[in-house]
Write a structure and sequence with these properties.
Length: about 140
């Protein structure tokens, strides 16, 4: 599966060659902060299947927590594009940055549901995890 996408202003672009390893929605408080209150929809790809093709991303890691994730975003418009975990070799891509977000189709799992807000919608047929599942 080949996909492409980028940030809101168009300065950062990326390409993906490969199938997603996972499709989900994350309800952690960090994702809620970044999404303005909503859960984040994401797909996970092998690191070697993802590459930036234009622009420069800035990264952010919280310094006040152990093993923080690294978040890549456009330095111009601020669009959050991807996340990388220190304990996982893969790219967690934010679905809204895809040129064709419809290719996401639907999440397969919901993670960090313990932190979900009452107004978050979690489909009843979705596998749910209170935190991060073991894979």
């Amino acid at each position: 599966m080949n996909m492409s996408g980028g940030c809101y202003c168009g300065k950062v672009r990326y390409e993906i060659s490969g199938d997603p390893l996972m499709k989900g929605q994350c309800h952690c408080r960090q994702c809620q902060h970044i999404a303005g209150g909503a859960p984040q929809y994401y797909m996970v790809f092998k690191t070697e299947d993802f590459r930036f093709t234009a622009g420069t991303v800035k990264t952010f890691e919280r310094q006040d927590i152990d093993d923080p994730v690294s978040r890549a975003f456009c330095e111009t418009c601020g669009t959050h594009i991807s996340t990388r975990r220190p304990d996982f070799d893969g790219v967690i891509l934010k679905v809204g940055t895809l040129d064709d977000p419809a290719c996401f189709q639907a999440p397969r799992i919901a993670i960090f549901t313990k932190e979900a807000q009452p107004f978050h919608h979690i489909p009843t047929d979705l596998a749910r995890f209170e935190g991060l599942p073991d894979f």
